[in-house]
User: What shape does this take?
Amino acid sequence: MKLHEISPAAGSTTAPKRLGRGVGSGLGKTSGKGHKGSKARSGGGKAQGFEGGQMKLVRRIPKRGFTNIYAKEYATINLSALEAFEDGAVVDAQALKNAGIVKNAKDGIKVLGNGELTKKLTVKAAKFSKSAAEKIEGNGGKAEVI
Assistant: This one.
């Protein structure tokens, strides 16, 4: 088989509509758009969210609250996830990524105290919950805030 002999499977591709190429083509004159109306016009059609003149859902729902665009978003992990590391290991964002525990570190890692930790680890993260820091240090490890 050569590159010029390769073709798509039969019926898997269709020819594009050739619009406005004469009355005999079946798609001449109005090019399949019918006569007049918004759908026949350039850029025509209903706006996104249009509900036939009824007030749009987006406008019926009350607007509440506020989103702080400067808020930091942390990737959270529980202590039970740290059991995957060997005793005496240094755990930081890169180590967590390599172990497949965290996909995206976002603005930093926050360690939560859910679960038990039996190993002595040095954990480097942006934030720790009180219970997480206590459990890490209770095993003789270190909870270092970066």
The CA atoms of residues 18 and 27 lie 7 Å apart. The first strand starts at residue 75 and ends at 78.
